[in-house]
Amino acid sequence: MTPSPLPGRFAGRTAVITGASRGIGLAIATRIVDEGGRVLITARKPEPLQEATAALGGSEHAVFVAGRADDPEHQAEVFATVGREFGRLDVLVNNTGINPAYGPLVGVDESAARKIMDVNVLAALSWTRQALAAGLGADGAGAVVNMASVAGLHPAPGIAYYGVSKAALIGLTVQLAAELAPAVRVNAIAPAVVKTRFAEALYAEDEAAAAAGYPLGRLGEPADIAAAAAFLASSDAAWITGQTLVIDGGAGLRASL
């Protein structure tokens, strides 16, 4: 069952969502627009962003800026565009993540490791800094949602350094939540395997076998994560900050049995 939007929950509010031309990021943008909000979406390539923006209803509801997530000039352009197009900033979703390194930590290429940390962790900090400078939290009700992973909470064979970066992002979430309260709430989401192109290698060969480890009997869908992100970004979560919401179809239950 796809989680249903709550009409009007984001009326008059604006969100910036990184890595949102497809997958989880686009699902989050769709959810916020369906709930009355406006979004600016980012990713590296302009063509998929243009298509995504059209699907979101065009410039009345969504605009885009293409660029690298770890480029401070791109970040500055994004927030200048938000101010010009929508006149306010209420929510930042740090969704961009990369993983160009596979295998055990002892064999990880150091240049790849630095790139992972730059994009998955340091860029999230930089986006947050620039969002604050652009007015996030000026009304005392700002929200940041960071996209972590269950790989940051326990050993993650094959994607070990990705897991290290997501553990660092969870730590960043906690520190920022303490520093930015009460004007800005900062939370994270830690999904298990979600059916996206990014995670396709983990389930494409045999989806049924991949889903067998989940008590709820299926892999995650982008809409599942979008519903949680919208909750954490909304006033419904007004007394929640510094938390990491695990969304894993019950997989963690099996580890405790």
Automatic annotation (TrEMBL):
CDD domains: SDR_c. Gene3D superfamilies: NAD(P)-binding Rossmann-like Domain. This is SDR family oxidoreductase. It comes from Jatrophihabitans cynanchi. Coiled coil: none annotated. InterPro entries: NAD(P)-bd_dom_sf, Sc_DH/Rdtase_CS, SDR_fam. PROSITE patterns: ADH_SHORT. Pfam families: adh_short_C2. Belongs to the short-chain dehydrogenases/reductases (SDR) family.
